[in-house]
Amino acid sequence: MHQLVERTTWLSVIVPAHNEEHRIQRTLADLRSALPTAEICVVANNCTDRTVEILRGIALHDPLLTFADIPAVVGKGGAVRVGFNLARGDVVAFVDADGATPAEELRRLVDVLGNADGVIASRWKKGAIVETQQSLKRRILSRGFNYLIRVLFKLPYCDTQCGAKIFKRSAIQDAMESVETSDFSFDVDLLYQLRRLDKCVKEEPSHWADRAGSSVDVKTAVPRMFASMVRLRLKYSPFRFVVPLLDRLAKLKPIAARRTLDVLVLSEHSPHSAATSVIEHEFFETCSKLRGERYRFTYCAAAALSADRVEKGALVKRRRLARLRLPFLYLSTLKDRFDCVIELSPTGRLWWTPLFSLKPKLVFSPLRDRLPAIYGKTRLARAVPSTAMDLAELIDATIIRGGPRLCAQADGSWILIERGNDLSVRRLPLLLAPEGVNVGTLPSIRLEPLRDTVERV
């Protein structure tokens, strides 16, 4: 079976599904008839009906069907991103589970892809065939939403919300890392990230028919989508500091999906330096025990950002200049790359990260009582945990201050890390793939110097 999968899964079709027991079987049968050699990945999100049971039965007879069962609410955006990381095709398609876009139409879009990075189906572009129209109310809301998208993001598309989209994996790999929207505005977030990366995405008139039985509540979905778009616009503006407040007021739940959680570590010395302090040595030693875990640590040492001199006075002065240099480097290159920032402060010297970084922060310092007021919302610790498990728990508790995370495990499975009602770290397993399907493995932890990383950007 593995040889068959390896040869034929150049195309993967991702189908997010929420309580689709009455439509999923027919949709999958149509997809398999039109695309007999494609890999199909169904992501069941918070299903309370028989959807997962039906998927298990179909998977017994279809070796190219994989599925994930997500008991938590991660929205369409979270479901598609889990499917993207589960899929193995060089070309990845997304299609809604309601079958509004015929499977044959999806096959035609694959042929249209050509040299472009992606193709999106459109119900509103000239040449589209719409068999069954949506209600007048929904059409008005659709056109109003599209106008908002054009104004806020300068996206040239007539229809960003049609369920059928096809992309080359190489084109959207980096874009997926930046997408955080979990609701139905996920499509706009993805297209905007691709635009920021200068990718070529074509819009193609499509054959489409409205399907009865939608579980979307317009009264709640529309305000949430509007808030999500305002959040996305603010995130890439000088007013990005407002985003955490908007998340709380609008009760948004942005979810980032990561194969590895990127952590920026700021310290006096690098891990291999002979001059490391006790707290630095303990941190780097405990990090080395996180083999096969989901973290990638990038360190930035004051000594590495300055030219060391023999004269003590000159060395201290240059290290201060290094601290002044970091904010400009961070804001210009690194601000969107990390999930959290860790400061190691054995002597009380600080990097002043709250002044230029909105990421969740963790400070290890035996002098924590001397930290200034700007570190009031930072997670503080006097000592580094002695075990890798305790350190991972502390890092996870820090990261989820910035929102839930979908994270890959070393065995290829996925978990949702979020904050529980008692503010503890809650981990929910997500992936239930058919037995025997290998969904990939993760590399061991890597410690990367900041300079080497920046050169690759």
Describe this structure in words.
This protein is 36% helix and 19% strand. The chain has 457 residues and is of the alpha/beta class. It is elongated. The longest helix has 23 residues, at 312-334. The strands form 4 sheets. Strands 3-2-1-4-7-5-8 form a 7-stranded mixed β-sheet, sandwiched between helices. The chain is built from 14 helices and 19 strands. Helix 2 crosses helix 5 and helix 6 (136-153) runs parallel beside helix 9 (218-235).
Question: What is shown here, in short?
Answer:
With 457 residues, the chain is α/β, with parallel strands linked by helices.
Features:
single chain, 457 residues, alpha/beta, Spore Coat Polysaccharide Biosynthesis Protein SpsA, Chain A, Rossmann fold, 2 domains, 7-stranded mixed beta sheet, 6-stranded parallel beta sheet, disordered N terminus, disordered C terminus
Q: Into which percentage range does the β-strand content fall?
A: 15-25%
Q: What is the count of β-strands?
A: 19
* CATH uppermost class of the largest domain: Alpha Beta
CATH architectural label of the largest domain: 3-Layer(aba) Sandwich
Total number of helices = 14
Query: Biggest sheet, strands in spatial order?
Result: 3-2-1-4-7-5-8
Task: Set out the fold topology.
Elements: H1 2-8, E1 11-17, H2 24-34, E2 39-45, H3 51-59, E3 65-70, H4 75-86, E4 91-94, H5 103-113, E5 118-122, E6 129-130, H6 136-153, E7 165-168, H7 169-178, H8 186-196, E8 201-205, E9 207-208, H9 218-235, H10 243-249, E10 256-258, E11 261-267, H11 278-287, E12 295-301, H12 312-334, E13 340-344, E14 361-364, E15 379-381, H13 388-399, E16 405-408, E17 414-419, E18 425-429, E19 447-449, H14 450-456
Parallel strand pairs: 1-2, 1-4, 2-3, 5-8, 6-9, 10-16, 11-12, 11-13, 12-19, 13-14, 14-15
Antiparallel strand pairs: 4-7, 5-7, 16-17, 17-18
